[in-house]
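tmp note - Transposase IS200-like domain-containing protein
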Amino acid sequence: MELEVLEKDNYYHIYNRGINGGIIFFNEENKNFFLRQLGKYLEDKISIFGYCLMDNHYHLIVRLNDNGKEVTQAFSNFFNSYAKSINKENDRTGSLFEKHFKRIRLEDEQYLKQLIVYVHLNPKHHLDLKFEEYKYSSYQSFLSQKETKLEREEVLNLFGEIENFIFFHNQKNDLLTEKYTFE
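out:
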């Protein structure tokens, strides 16, 4: 599989999982550390439109603010620093993540909106948790008035207003619940 080349001013779904589907976040502090390292390595290079950290995988929705080669290297440095820290903490060796991080260029606004909702619903889909209460997703940050590094205003404008943002999430959640209840 050929990897998508990252290009400035484009939106991407960045994701990966643990090697062989294994755990990459062993505790809450690991998830907090991942988010801190993301800021440390990529804060000025990307804008973040959504994220979700699950125990064995992560999703990031970003727009590149810098040239693709520089951002790709920054992502590589970020993931390497995280993996080295986790390996040291857990007395393990070898790869933490499956191969290279995956990336899909988002071609239109509709896909961007659907992806934001999909990423936020991950806790419901994978763990049957209430996505609205999940701590390691960007969903709550979009509803909050607290300062954030997320592109809150831009995302809410994408949905028209905060009520539509909530509506789209609840509508997809209802469809997801029906799908898994009746299959």
